[in-house]
Design a protein that fits this description.
Layout (H helix, E strand, L loop, with lengths): L1 E5 L4 H12 L3 E6 L14 E4 L7 H8 L3 E4 L6 H6 L1 H21 L4 E7 L1 H4 L18 H20 L2 E7 L1 E3 L11 H10 L5 E3 L9 E2 L1 E3 H10 L7 E5 L5 E2 H12 L7 E4 L13 H7 L7 H16 L1
Parallel strand pairs: 1-2, 1-4, 2-3, 4-5, 5-6, 6-11, 7-10, 8-13
Antiparallel strand pairs: 9-12
The structure holds nicotinamide-adenine-dinucleotide.
Length: 312
């Protein structure tokens, strides 16, 4: 298959590119390198340094004749979306619309979209949350990801473009960059290696911190590989199904890093932080035959290994 991976120089996208190439597909990457890095990019992929909103995307579609689009490029920071909802909407809504329009125009068969689990459904209902849980979309980022899902449904019903939405939990692993308040694992790692303490944002009633569902990036890219042929016109959670507190992640990371113990400092409550989050992955098992293979301890060990190799 000939596949366009948007955001293929980013953390998750670059692993998807590697797996698609390994499976024998032809891969083209479009990335504006706003958060992605060229060093992540597999040299066997063709590369366009381009914004997904650009009118020049039309030429790329015309030249390349894609069978499938895998859309990872996004404004992915919740705090940044709160700060600047306009930019978030431009990238996450106008960006996907441009790609969907071109997909229909140039006869693309299928569109895989990376959405989000926790941020969409909030923490009010059942945990782990199934795909059918009510969407609360309480932040601009969640609103625009949900809009992307709805546009896919619309394009499938009216233009026959097939899709799979993969709603990720908290993805971690090699190549993840800690930016601002995003990516607790790379932020903790950087601090541990610099001998600095890290902040724990926690509600007073939950001193161990909020809980999240952590899934290793190679498991996520394998789900994207399976979605090439399976899971048409549906939404599928990709996570571990398990709740882990922020303090527990910190303890496991300290062990994996083999660094001297530095206690977390209490950073106070962060308005809007979800208290609890985990995704029900029954549907991924049934439809994709997917379940995570790498547990948190093993995934953190791989992440530490990558981090050390970059520092040396
Ligand atoms: N990391 C997670 O835990 C997580 C969880 C849920 C969903 N997601 C989603 O997964 C996808 C990948 O996230 P990631 O963590 O790998 O982030 P990332 O920032 O590492 O990757 C995003 C890539 O998209 C590129 N990009 C951003 N805006 C662009 C634009 N306008 N035009 C072209 N390229 C652009 C960036 O340069 C980067 O290479 C995103 O859609 C994100 O919302 C991530």
């Amino acid at each position: 298959m000939k596949i366009l991976v948007t955001g293929g120089a980013g953390f998750i996208g670059s692993h998807i590119v590697d797996d698609y190439l390994m499976a024998g597909h032809q891969v083209v990457v479009v990335d504006n390198l706003s958060t992605g890095r060229l060093e992540n990019l597999n040299p066997a992929a063709s590369f366009y340094l381009l914004d997904i909103r650009s009118p020049e995307m039309k030429k790329v579609f015309e030249l390349e004749n894609f069978d499938l689009i895998n859309h990872q490029a996004a404004q992915k920071s919740v705090p940044a979306s709160v700060e600047n909802p306009f930019l978030d909407a431009e990238i996450n809504i106008l960006g996907i619309l441009n790609l969907l329009n071109l997909s229909v125009q140039y006869g693309v068969e299928k569109f895989i979209f990376s959405s989000t689990g926790g941020a969409l459904v909030g923490d009010a209902g059942k945990i782990p949350a199934p795909e059918k849980a009510e969407v609360t979309a309480a932040t601009p980022y969640a609103i625009t990801k949900h809009a992307g899902e709805r546009y896919l449904d619309f394009f499938a019903r009216t233009r026959g473009l097939k899709f799979t939405v993969l709603r990720y939990a908290n993805v971690y692993g090699p190549r993840q960059a800690g930016e601002g308040e995003c990516g607790v694992i790379p932020i903790f790692l950087e601090n541990l290696f610099k001998g600095r303490s890290s902040l724990l944002y926690a509600y007073k009633e939950d001193p161990e911190g909020c809980t999240r569902d952590y899934v290793y990036v190679k498991d996520v890219s394998r789900a994207n590989l399976l979605a090439l042929d399976l899971g048409d016109n549906t939404i599928i959670n990709i996570g571990s199904g398990l709740e882990v507190s922020t303090s527990q992640v910190y303890r496991l990371l300290q062990e994996a890093a083999g660094k001297k113990k530095i206690p977390l400092k209490y950073g106070g409550e962060r308005a809007g932080d979800l208290r609890r989050s985990a995704l029900d992955i029954t549907k991924a098992k049934e439809i994709l035959g997917w379940e995570p293979k790498v547990d948190l301890e093993a995934g953190l060990a791989q992440t530490v290994k990558y981090y050390k190799s970059r520092k040396s």
